[in-house]
Every structure is written in structure tokens, then in C-alpha cells.
Amino acid sequence: MSLAPSSTVVLHHRFATELPELALAWQAEEAPDPRLLVLNEPLAAELGLDPDSLRSPDGLALLVGTRVPEAATPVAQVYAGHQFGGFNPRLGDGRALLLGELVDTGGSTRDLHLKGSGRTPLARGGDGLAAVGPMLREYVVSEAMHALGIPTTRALAVLATGRDVRRETVLPGAVLARVASSHLRVGSFQYARGVDGDPGADLLRRLADHAIARHHPGAARAEHPHRALFEAVVAAQASLVAQWMLVGFVHGVMNTDNMTISGETIDYGPCAFLDAFDPGTVFSSIDEAGRYAYLNQPVVAEWNLARLAEAMLPLLAEDQEQAVALAVESLGGFRPAYTAAWTAGMRAKLGLADDLDEETGTALFNDLLALMQAGHVDHTSCYRHLASAARGDTEPARGLFLDLAAYDAWAARWLALRPDADAMDRVNPVYVPRNHLVEEALAAGTRGDLAPLHQLLEVLAAPYDERPGLERYAAPAPVDFGVYRTFCGT
Ligand code: AMP
Ligand code: MG
After folding, report:
1. Residues 204 and 330 in one domain
2. Among the three residues 341, 373, 408, which one is the final residue of a domain in this structure?
3. Residue 349: inside a domain, yes or no?
4. Which among 68, 217, 249, 328 has most CB atoms closer than 10 A?
5. Residues 314 and 272 in one domain
6. Looking at residues 128-137, what average pLDDT do you find?
């Protein structure tokens, strides 16, 4: 018989205690009939939580936030943010709660956070709720990202609440229990700067020191810790966005409140993976101008980091002009770091040696992408077919392209560099959360049939490992799937 998590789980409240200006103590709304739809047992084990006790009524109550350990202080986090370029000085968790921090079995501090747990004082017009489909979507895509080796928040569980949610239709409600190395965002710094206003202000400094302690402890030993923190965030985001680009991930809503200080991917709303390679791809129905299109992601990340630099200016130097100069210099690290990460990633995707000449590499990569775009080539399967071509089986890759003469000329240049096919298969996934498969699993899950979801999760947990019988998960969407659109904030 396992003990009740609400009495045994130790939840710290360091964020709430150190940064009370960013934390509103709040409680989850009652869930009439909480039912577990999916539980991440390996993650639970990593967190030192017993899966059986999480499945108990007391465990379910913890996972929807209605029964928390006595010493816990659940809070809604306050932050600001640029949303599609427009600044909102006070956003925050409108339908989420930070239950507290757990120390995992490896000794790392992780946030335990709920999404869809009811209205908070920051809900603005929203109902504070979430529907089963979008919460399962975050579960599937964030766990797929983790299996791909890309830094991300994790999904611990999705529970149906038994409460209806009104969207365009009435949908079953859900809560997602999410785990992150923290929920500090660029928007957290923007809010702290707005509250403080004056240089030398205390909240901004405490926030920066909290971020250093949690994410970039090396910065504490630097000559200028706050500048080192900023540079660490620049480096982490450059690396993260390069990984998105290499795997064909489109985040879809890269507002500054959806960009972490840790360098983890966060807030899986309208995100999706590329099918046919097209740099202009936009999935989100509300992103009419294509601000967050696939190809714009590195530039948007840099823009967001410039907003972080602005927020941190009082910490960089007392003299404003000097602070700006330092910020500009540190932000200048983004482009070289991004390019280095992307180039190294492309080299690996094409199975080429580390010492490949830079000019040769850049031309080879850009020429391939241009051919892929012209031929509407499926992004994910292309690299696996190229690995087969490197083994001598040339037709599957060749068959993807429209301009065969151009492809043959490109392939001759590439094969002359003797690509390592096995190395390619270790970095190019066979299985990603393809839009049609995700939609199919969510539609079934919303109807109460969780079998397709579990099958999809199992496939995506080992994305590099090609397995017989799973061809359908590796194949592009059927033609009649049409143009894919995703929706935000649901
Ligand atoms: P997102 O685009 O998902 O990052 O959400 C932007 C902001 O809107 C966040 O502060 C959310 O907490 C808030 N929000 C989204 N949906 C709802 C909802 N149904 N009720 C209350 N707040 C919401
Ligand atoms: Mg968000």
C-alpha cells in the first residue's frame, strides 16, 4: 500500500519565497471527476514519485491540484510579454499553477506545474480551463521532443476533469501536469523591469540571481554574473532554435512569455512539424503575417533576446550607454552560436566529418534545402532516404525530387565526401509527431479511446529506431489531409 502523495511529496516554494512579487498564492478549481488519461511512469520515477500512488484518488487530487502537501504554496506566476510584437505589461498564468519545486532523483530542482486548473486573478477574459485534445497534444509533442534529445518541458500526466469546456463546441476538460527545470521566461524579466523601473532595483536583481542559481550556476563565478547570465541564455537559445530548425519544428507562438531562461522549449500550443520542406511554413491560424514562420525562428529568437537585454540593462552597468554597449556586444554572440550549431547539425544529418570545409558545407546544405523546397520533399524522411543512398540504395531518395538532374549533381558532390550512413541514422529521426497522426490520436482520445495515443507515444519514444510494422508512422500525411492549421490558447 503506497502512501498518499499529498502527505509524502515534498514540494519546495523557493520561487514563491524569493520572488513574491511574481507569485500570487492561488488554488486549483475543484475537478468533479478526475480520471487519469495518461501517466508518464519513467518521468514519475525520475522525480521520485511512485506511479501507483499517483494513480490513487489522493494522487489524482495532487495531479489536478485540489489536494496539495500542507507545506506547499501553489502560485500563479506573473510575467509580461511581447505577443506578436505588441507589449503586454501584465500577463501571467491565467489557467496554470506552479504547485512547487521537487528535487528529482538526480538532485536537480524541477517545477511541478498544472495547466487547465481553473481561473486565476490573471485569467483576463479566459475561462481558466483546458480541453483534453490540446493537453494531450502538449503531452505527445513535448515527450517526442524529449526523445529527440531537444531541451523541453516534460509532461507528467493528463487528467480528464469531468468538467465541460466551452470552445466552438463543448469539449471534455483536462489538466496537464507539467515538469520544467523552471518556468522563468524572458517575460518574467520584462515584468520585473517594469515593476522596478529604476536602476539598481531589487526585484530584477533577485530574479537574475534566482535564475543563475537554478540554470546557469557557472555565471555566479564570472567577473560579471548578470552579463554572464544573459550570455548563457543567448547560448542556450541559439542551440535550442538550431535544434528546432534541424528537426523541422515550428513553435508557432514565440512570444517573449513563451521563451524560457533555461533554454527549454515551452508552451506547445499551435506548434507542428514540417511535412514538405518549405521555409515559409506557418501552421498557426492566428499568425496571419507569418511572424513565427519556420524560417523566421532564429531571427525571432534574437529579437526576443534583445527584449531580455533591454529588461536586464540596469543589471549590466550603472551607466545606461555602457549597459547598452555591453548588451549589444553580448547579443552579438547569438548569430555565430546559432550558425555554428546549425552547421554542425547539418553536417551530422548528412553524415559528414567535423573537419568539412565551411564553404563546401554551406553550399552543400543550402543547395539541398533549395532542391527540397522546389520538390516539396518531406523533411523527415528525406534524410533517412539519403542515408540509404549513402549505402548504395539510391532510388528512394532520388524519387523524392522533381529535378532529377539537379539532384544527381548534388548527390555526386555529397557522395564524394563519403558520408557515414550509420551516423546519419543516429541523428535523423524516422518518427516525428506528424500532424495527421497527432490529430488522429487526439480525436480518438477526446472520444475516450486512448489506444491510438498510447501507440503513438510508444513509437515516438524511440524516434531513431526504425521498426518493422510501423511504416505508417514514418510516412507523410495522405494527400487528402490537406493544409494543416493549428489553434492557440485552447
Ligand atoms: P499561451 O499563448 O498559451 O502562452 O497563452 C497566453 C496567455 O493566455 C497565458 O498567460 C495563459 O495563461 C493565458 N490563457 C490561455 N488560455 C487561457 C484560458 N482558457 N483561460 C485563462 N487564461 C488563458
Ligand atoms: Mg504561454
Report:
1. yes
2. 341
3. no
4. 249
5. yes
6. 98
> Any residues with CB less than 8 A from the CB of 470 and at least 6 apart, and which?
431, 459
At residue 482 the predicted structure's pLDDT band, cuts being 50, 70 and 90, is: confident
Mean pLDDT to the nearest integer, 276-290: 97
Same structural domain for residues 175 and 205? no
pLDDT at 7: 83
pLDDT for 101 beyond 90 = yes
For residue 305, count CB atoms less than 10 angstroms from its CB and return exposed for 0-12, middle for 13-18, buried for 19 or more: buried
Domain boundary among 183, 212, 238: 183
Task: Give the pLDDT confidence score for residue 200 in this predicted structure.
Answer: 46
For 27-54, b where at least 16 C-beta lie within 10 A, e where not — what string?
Answer: ebbebeebeebbbbbebbebbebbbebb
> Is residue 487 a part of any domain in this protein?
no
Query: What's the rounded mean pLDDT across residues 207-216?
Result: 98
Least confident range from 56-70, 187-201, 254-268, 342-356: namely 187-201
Beta-ladder partners of 36: 159
Residues marked active site are found at 257
Q: Is there a single domain that holds both residue 14 and residue 158? A: yes
pLDDT at 467: 98
Ligand 1 pocket (Cβ < 6 Å) reads 91-96, 123, 126-129, 253, 258, 267, 269, 488-489
pLDDT score, position 480 = 85
**Grid cell listed for 441:** 490520436
Within this chain, do residues 203 and 290 fall inside the same structural domain, yes or no?
yes
Ligand closest to the CA atom of residue 269: 1
148: in domain: yes
Residue nearest to atom 16 of ligand 1 (CA): 489
Instruction: Scan for cell 549597459, then name that residue.
Output: 323
- Identity at 134, one-letter amino acid code: P
Test site for ligand 1: of 75, 87, 95, 260, most ligand atoms within 8 A of the Cβ: 95
Reply yes or no on whether the pLDDT at 106 is more than 70.
yes
For helices 451-460 and 435-446, the axis angle rounded to 10 degrees is: 150
Same domain membership, residue 282 and residue 139: no
Number of structural domains in the chain:
2
Strands in 75-77's sheet, in edge-to-edge order, are 23-25, 75-77, 96-103, 109-115, 170-180, 154-166, 35-39
Judge whether 359 lies within some domain: no
Range of the domain at 173: 6-183
User: Is there a single domain that holds both residue 244 and residue 174?
Assistant: no
Read off the amino acid at residue 194. Answer: G
Bigger pLDDT: 73 vs 481: 73
| Residues near ligand 2 ion, CB 5 Å cutoff | 258, 267
